[in-house]
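Example record

The entry below shows one chain as it appears in the dataset: sequence first, then C-alpha cells.
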Amino acid sequence: MGIITKKLQNIGISALENYSFLLTELIAGQPGIYALYKGDELYYLGKAVNLKRRLSQHLKDRHYKKWDKFSLFIVNNEKHIDDLESLLVTVCEPKGNRQHPRGKAVNLENDFKKRIDTYRQEQDALLFGRKQVAHSRKTIPLQVIYKNKKYTAKLLSNGNVVLNKHVFSSPSAAGRFITGKTSNNGLQFWKAKDKKGNIVPLKKILY
C-alpha cells in the first residue's frame, strides 16, 4: 500500500460550503495533506489530522476568499504528514505559506560542497602534479588496508578509479564505497608505490 490511499482533487469551494456534511461522511476525519488553489495557481499547502475540519477552518481564517478550489490527499499513517508537508512546501513554495515547516531530513549541502572541493583537489593533482607520470604510465596501482582487509584498485590517467570492475569518478568516491562513510580523502586514504618502492599516500605520488 502506498503512502497516499485516497484523494479528492480540484473541488470548488462552494461544494465545501454547501455539502460539508457529505464530505464528513466521505473522509471521516482522516489525516493527510491538502492544497488550496486560486484558479489554476497553487495558493497554500497544509497538513491535518482531520482534513475536513481543517478545510472548514479556512473558510473563516486569513485565507478565506484567497482560494476557490481545494484538493486533499489521505495518508495511510499520520506519521508521514509532517515530512510530506515539508517536502511539498519546500518544492512548491506557495505564496500563502508564510513559514516553511522544518523537515527531519539531513541537509546534504555541506557534504556536497566538501566532495566538490575534494574532487577538484584530486583533479588538480592529476592535471598539474603528475604530468610526466600521466604520459609515461596509463595507470597507477592503488592499495589500502581497511579493517584488516586489503583492497587494490587502479587510478586511470583521466582520474577515474577502477575497483572490482566498478569505475568511480575519483579516489575519494572509491574510498567512500569501501568505508561506507559519507566523507573520504582519497589522496590520503589510498596508497601507492613511489619511485623507491615505498608505500606512501597517493597524495605524495601525485604532487
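Notes for this example: The two ends are 55 Å apart (CA to CA). Confidence is low (pLDDT under 50) at residues 131-136.
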